[in-house]
Every structure is written in C-alpha cells, then in structure tokens.
Amino acid sequence: MKHYDVVIIGTGPAGQKGAIQAAKLGKSVAIVEKQNVLGGAQINTGTIPSKSLREAALHLTGAAQRGNYSGASRAKQKITIHDLIEISSNVIRHEWEVIRGQFERNGVDLIWGTAHFEGPNLLMIQGDGDSQLVTADRFLVSCGTRPAKPADIPFDNDAIFTSDGLLKLERLPKSMIVVGGGVIGTEYASIMATLGVKVTLVEGRHQLLGFLDSEISGAFMYFMRQQGVTLRMGEKVERIEKVEHRNGTVSTLVQATLESGKKLKAETLLYAVGRQGVCGAMGLDNVGITFDDRERLKVDEHYQTNVDHVYAAGDVIGFPALASTSMEQGRRAIAHAFGQDVGNYNTDLFPYGIYAVPEISMVGKTEEQLTQEGVPYEAGVARYEEIARGQILGDRTGMLKMLIHQDSHKILGVHCMGTGATELVHIGQCVMGLDGTAEFFINNVFNFPTLAEAYKVAAYNGLNKLAHV
Ligand SMILES: Cc1cc2nc3c(=O)[nH]c(=O)nc-3n(C[C@H](O)[C@H](O)[C@H](O)COP(=O)(O)OP(=O)(O)OC[C@H]3O[C@@H](n4cnc5c(N)ncnc54)[C@H](O)[C@@H]3O)c2cc1C
Ligand SMILES: NC(=O)c1ccc[n+]([C@@H]2O[C@H](COP(=O)([O-])OP(=O)(O)OC[C@H]3O[C@@H](n4cnc5c(N)ncnc54)[C@H](O)[C@@H]3O)[C@@H](O)[C@H]2O)c1
Questions:
Q1: Which residues cross the membrane (predicted)?
Q2: CA–CA distance from 317 to each of 14, 16, 422 (Å)?
Q3: Does 69 have pLDDT greater than 90?
C-alpha cells in the first residue's frame, strides 16, 4: 500500500493548485479523479465551456462589433451547435494537456477512480474494474458540486437540461425557458439571446444578480430586455413537464407552470437554480466529518475541517464557489497543512466577473452597502461612448463607476459593464489593494486609446463632484 504526505480528491481548480503547492513544498502527493477527464467543472462543464461558447456566439453573430458595422460583420449566416462547440472542445483539450503536463513535471501521482474514506488516514480508490488502497498524513477534499436536479423534473438532456446538459445539445433551439436568474441563468440566457434564441428567464427575486450594485443590475436588466429576453421577475416555477403542442402539426414542447398560474412554453428549458454537493458518498463519517443538507463542508479560515488532518477547498465549502477563489483556497489549504506562511489574504477584494452579454465585473462595495454602512462616498462615472477606445470598439453601452470616499478619496468599489469589464476591474482592485486614491488615476499617464481611460474619466468625474461638496 502506497503512503503519501497528502492525497487530494478532485482535479478541479482547488485540487490542481493544492497538488502543485504540495509538490513545490517537496511533499509526496497523489490526486484522485473519478471522471475520465481532468479539470472538474472548471474545464469540462462550467467556466471554460461557457466562456468559449460566449466568445463563439459574439464572433459568429458579429454581436461584438454590432455598434459599428450593424449586421455586416456576422461571420456566419447559419450558426450550428457544432460551430459553437468546436472552439470550446479545442480549448478543453488544450487545458487537459496543460494540467497533465503540470502534474507530470511536478511529480504528482494521478490516480483515476472514485475516492472513499475507509478510515481517518485510509482511502479506497475504486477504478474501472480495479481498486486500490492508499494512506496519507493529510487530505484535501476538493470534490466540487453538481447541478441541482430535483427528482420531479423530467430531465432528458434534450429538451429539459441543466448547465451540464446544455453543452451536449444536438441543435440550437428556437426558444428556451431559463429557470433561475443567478450567474449561470443570466450568462446562458444572454448568450442564447445573442444567438437569436427566444429566451424567457424566470427568477424568484425582483432583481437579477442581486449582489451587484443596483445601478449595474438595473442597466443589465434593461439590456437583456433590449436583446429580446422576456424577464419574469418575482415569479417561481412550480411544475415542469412536456406537453403536446398542436399548430397544424403536433410537436412536443416544455411547459413551465409558475406559482402565479402563468404557463410558459418553449422548445427547451435550462434549469439553473444552484448546485448540490457530492461529498455525501465519500465515507466522511468514517473520519468524523459532518456536512450540511446541501453536502457542504464547514472549514475554518485555514480551510481545515473539524478533523485536523483533513482540509477542504473549492465549491464543496460553499460561497463564493468560483474557479478563481477555489484555486487560491486549494493553494492556501495545502500551505497551511505543511506549515508554510502565505501571508495576507484580503477576502474583501474578491472580484466578481459575470460573462453575460454585456460583460459585468465588480470589486469592493456597492453604493447600497456604503449607504447602509454610513460611509460618505461619491460616484465617479465614465461611459464608453465618451472613451475613444469604446467608440473604436463600437461599444455604446459600456460604463465604469468608481466609488470614492468623500474625505480620503480612497477607492471603495469599482463597478463595470461592457467590453473588457472582467479584465478592467483588476486595475481598480490593484489600486484598492495598495490603498490608493482617485488622484492616482489623474496623476499617471495611461496608454491611449484604451478602455483603461475610463478610470481617468471616472476619477475626474468623481473628484469634480466632490469639489462642489
Ligand atoms: C456553467 C458554469 C460557469 C461557470 N463560470 C465560472 C466563471 O466564469 N468564473 C469562475 O470563477 N467560476 C465559474 N464557475 C464556477 C467554477 O466552475 C467552480 O467554482 C469550480 O470549478 C469549482 O472548483 P472545485 O475544484 O471546487 O471543483 P470542481 O471543478 O467541481 O472539480 C471537482 C472534481 O472532483 C471530482 N470528484 C468528485 N468526487 C470525487 C471522488 N469521490 N473521487 C474522486 N474524484 C472526485 C469530480 O469528478 C471533479 O472533477 C462556473 C460554473 C458553472 C457550472
Ligand atoms: N462568472 C462566474 O463567476 C460564474 C458563472 C456561472 C456560475 N458560477 C457559479 O456557479 C454557481 C451556481 O450558479 P447558479 O446560477 O446555478 O445558482 P445561484 O444560486 O447563483 O442562482 C440561482 C437563482 O435561481 C433562483 N431560483 C431558485 N429557485 C427558483 C424557482 N423555482 N423559480 C425561479 N427562480 C428560482 C434564485 O433566486 C437564484 O437567483 C454559483 O455559485 C456561481 O458562483 C459562476
């Protein structure tokens, strides 16, 4: 039986970074994966495929340049699902090679199979036809989550599907009901609308992406409607079924019945109301670790569970459940497990990137939070239509808002929507992390023409308003 310093369960972003960190510390490390592919949801069903699909949709429909070239920049008249999936498959294949190469170069043992704890330090790995036992001093549980799939919904991966099933569609549908206006629902609803699919989005709350600054989420809802998406806000789906539809010929449609009694019909339905844990089947009771009703593990600030030698990171520990945060959690968990100090960790400066159409990103506080906390601030706003690069790109709708402390002029939050928002936000994040003020943007020269000029314009705008206070 082989013994390791640490065994990691799951090759998603948390597991990958944990494994490499352990190897860099000179530890013997094995990583276990139950699927027949590397990379977890990040590479295979979540982040990478959805972002590749978005890029393909923007390119093939010409939507990215629509402001300047109207319909003329459409790269392909009839877009098929194959066109959309092709780029995604290439990126995924490349990512598998990158991860495999990193494991090989760093001496990480990759074991294919499903991990199950048989005792506090003993793991059974059930492979395809064979099984093996390994022991380790420490463990990192980074097994991720799966889409929530209530038993009363007739999922068939053809007409009714989760975000995993959407990637296996054989054709681009004419219409789609999207249930859930969280990040997955809004990203896919806006991507599908860009592709010309008639989308109805049903969300139980009255605001999409409620954690965003309300000016941004309000503007985003406006743009969604402009793209033709029907938003059914404050409505809950009660029942989902397939029904016969007679319109000359007989076809089958999906029908969603809302609590309000409304019935919606479409060719397809994407169910995106959150994710469910998978650690329940891992034998954690043999180690003395408990989990909640959504199979999430509780950890302390070092990602240590209630059993000292078992750490957990990534989606399995719940919020914020992002690839970006999972990577850092995995690295930090392993560093702590082996007594390595990794310094400060400013969780207040996590950025959020929403890859919808248009793209949205934020870091720091929203206007609503600052008002509630009684922090005096001013908002400096720049619109892409007054930024030369925004004009060149043909993005007439983008904006960047910087929240500036009224007295110290420190940056308290950055909220951005439009081309490049998810990249642009990091400039603000750096200035915030280094305790900078709005004057930084005035007193430094930026490349021109760039979207980064929006920071300068927003700083001028905010400071000018403050000059009158
Ligand atoms: C549609 C979609 C889009 C997303 N977009 C973004 C985005 O744009 N940006 C972002 O930051 N995040 C995004 N996310 C979230 C991101 O994908 C997850 O936060 C991230 O993948 C979680 O990483 P993880 O390492 O915790 O787990 P996962 O990536 O879920 O990996 C867990 C791995 O563990 C394996 N495993 C589970 N149980 C066992 C077992 N018993 N034995 C062996 N192996 C096991 C699984 O097979 C899996 O490969 C998106 C998610 C979805 C679904
Ligand atoms: N760009 C990104 O960072 C990104 C992209 C996609 C996914 N993710 C991650 O994936 C995870 C899952 O995302 P998600 O969107 O599935 O979950 P979510 O929990 O973020 O959103 C689910 C939404 O569905 C609504 N809802 C629940 N039941 C409903 C019903 N019966 N009828 C109508 N609406 C209902 C909820 O009010 C909520 O707004 C999140 O943790 C997210 O962080 C991140």
A1: none
A2: 11, 16, 25
A3: no
